[in-house]
Amino acid sequence: MHPRNQRIAIALLSLAAHADVHATAAEDEHIRQIVQGVLKEKDQKIEQLEARIKQLEQERNNSVAVSANPTVAPAGEPAPAPVKTAANAKPEPTVDTKLKALDKKIAALKEAAEANGLQMSGFFDINAKTGNSTDQTFSVGSVELDLDYVHDDHFGASSALVLCGNSSNADYGAPGAVFCGNSGPGALSGGSTMAGIAVALVDYHSFNDRIPPRGRIFNNKGFHIQAGRFDLPFGNDYQNFANKDRITITAPLTTSRMQLGGYNADGIRSYGAWDMFNYSVFWTDALYANDGHTVGGRLGLALGQNTYKIHNANPEGIEIGVSHLSEFDGENRIRNTVYGADLSIGYGMWRLQNEFMLLNAHQQVFLEQDADGNPLPIIIPDPNTSPFGKGHQLGYHSTLTVDLESLSKQPIVAFARYSRWQPSQGLGLDFDGSTVAINDISMLSLGFNYKFSDHLRVKFEYNDSLGTETAERYFDRKLGIAQIVMSF
């Protein structure tokens, strides 16, 4: 290249480089100004946030100081009521929420016990009656605690402890149905029995390891051999000796009169259920006297229903049962024989329970007197002594229950029952040993119960003897009863 042209090219490159340096410096200055503006704006926002935080902290400190030192209103001026806001207002708990909370607590306790092989349950009842022979309106009936313990696959134990409140102020020798709130606990028959053991047994079993102390013992398939104290499956009312299991309040006359409140004794028994068949056999102490023993049993046939049903269900289908027991005195002479038949029919919301009992006495009861002239019932075979009479008795009842929940959308069960008791003799012994006139008795019972929850039920019942009566101290011709049963 010509020297002149080289000088021109070098000059042009120098000018271009100088211009580029000036452009870069200008851009850097512009960027620096933008960044400074952003940082300044950020500092302003930080200062504003710090000021707001200080303001909120001051307001909080002021509110804490006011709470710690509330202003005392001058004398004579009412203190201002606290203002309720949506934030601090809490809804008042309803009866339903309280019952649900109680159910959860009970379920938690049961789960803790079952984890160790123990099932616990129980109940108590409170009664209110119209004018009656006890001259009391309110009474605590019976309190029962049931325990069911499984030791292993084949052995277990069960017990039911019963306490009678006797707040009705009845005499201690009164029948259990009166002594325990006019409802009847079964197994306790008065006679100063404030508390008692209704069930206490050891059990050998197969198929099923649950041993219900009372109630529907045939609900589960199985085979059991037991020793101890227990209710006797006779007829069908044995399922309802505990008030929590009974739809009605009072027991039928077959139970209260002929079974003395409910057959219960010490001894041994075996029972089981397979498919449609169930059975029970027992050998126990005497039922109607203080000496001797009793043997008997029941055979049942269930048609058109699931035998293994839940405890509180109203099963459909038909169940037929026949029962028998023979009681012997201390010298093995037969004293009484009792025959029973029962029929239960369930269809939809309807359930009909029928029971028939016949007691034949084989020995006459004669009246002797003690030193004070009071009659003493003793059993002797001498026909030349003035007889008190053989205790032949016939009884039956028919009970209809209707589950109205499907119609009323409320857990209501209505019931109607007619029962009859026909003794052969015209005289009997009252609870205190006095001789009183007795007659055939009819009893019509009407009522309903309402289930608030699985643990709370309220029952109402009206009883009318339809013009029949006896001279017994605690006989009521007409009686209205309300009962609250709390189970756990």
UniProtKB/TrEMBL annotation:
Residues 32-66 form a coiled coil. It comes from the Bacteria. Residues 1-19 form the signal peptide. Residues 70-92 are annotated as: Disordered. Keywords: Coiled coil, Signal. This is Porin. It comes from Methylomonas methanica. The lineage of its organism: Bacteria, Pseudomonadati, Pseudomonadota, Gammaproteobacteria, Methylococcales.
